[in-house]
Target: Polyprenyl synthetase family protein
Amino acid sequence: MNTHREGHDAAVGGHRAALEDALRRYLHRRLRESEGIDAGFGRDLAGETVRFTLAGGKRMRSLLAWWGWTAGGGNPGGERARSALQACGALELIQTCALVHDDVMDGSPTRRGRPSVHARHMAEHEENGHSGEPRRYGEALAVLVGDLALVWADDMFEEALDGLSRPRGARAVWRGLRTEIMAGQFLDVRAQAGRDRSEGTALRVNLLKTASYSVERPLHLGAAMAGADGATVDALRGYGRDVGTAFQLRDDLLGVYGDTARTGKPVGEDISEGKCTLLLAAGVRLAGERGDAAASDLLSRVGAGADPAEVADALDRLGARDLVRGRCRELAARGVGRLDGLDLDPAVLEGLRGLAARTGTDPV
Model:
C-alpha cells in the first residue's frame, strides 16, 4: 500500500472540497438574493448559472490558484485562508462564462455529456410553445447565463480581496486573465472564419485561450495574492505556459481520436467546425512537404464537409498525430524542469508534477 500516494490524494481531495465549499456557499447566497429580485430570474437564470457551475468540472483552475497561493507563502491554516479559498473559487465562475459562451459560438449541442445551456433552453422553448425562434431564445438565455457568471466572478473575487494582504497585485493578474480569455476566443473565431491553417496561429490561440487561462494565470493569481517573490512567480508562470499548452494539445487529440463518453463532447467536432489546431495545421504543412495532393485536398475541406474520420486517418498517416504527441511530452518535461530550485510544499510539488505527467501522456 502506497501511504505517501494516499496521503497526497487525501490532501488534494481536501483542497478541492474546501474550494467547492467556498464556491457553494457564495453561489447559494447569490441565488437567494436573485430569487428576491424576481422569482423567474432566480429560477431560470441565476438558478441555471448555479446548477451549471456546481454540476461538473474538476476545479482544476481554482486548485492551481490555491497551489500558487501556497507556493507564494500563503498559510493554508492561517486567518487569510478563507478569503484565499473564495478568491480562488471565483475562477470557476469565469469557467462557466467561457464554456457557456463557447458552446453558443460553436453551436455545440452538448457539454459534459448533457445538453449545453443554449440547447436545453431551445428545447424548453419548443416544449412550452413560446413565440419566436427557439434558437434565438436559447442562445439569448445562454448569453445571459454567461454574463451573470462573469459578473458574479468579479463580485466573488473582489469581496475576497478584503481579507487578503496583497490585493493590488492580485487585481492586476485578474484583469489580465479576463482580457486574455477574450483575446484567445477572438483569435479562435477569426482563425476559424478565415480558414487559417498556420501553426503559429494555432499555438497563439492555445496560449491565450487555454494555457494562460487554465494553468499559467491561476498559478500567477494565487502567487500574487500571497505576495510571492519574482523568481517564484516566473517559475510558476513558465510552468503554466508549457503545461497549459500541452493540456490544450492533448485536448485536441482527444477531440479527434478520443471517446465521446469520456470527453462529453462529440468526437470530430473540431474537424467539422474547422478549428485551427496544431494537429490540423501540422497536417496541412506535412501534406504540402510530401506532395500528398489527396491529403492536401482533404484537409482543405476541413470545416466545409470533409469527413472527420477520413481527416483523422489522414492526420495519423501524415505524422501530425505523432508530432503533437511528441510536443506534449516535450512541453510537459520542460514545465516540470522550471520547478527545480523552488521551495514548494511537497503536496503542491507533487500535484504540479502529476498534472504535467498527465498532460505529457498520450491520451489516445
About this structure: The domain at 166-364 is CATH 1.10.600.10 (Farnesyl Diphosphate Synthase).
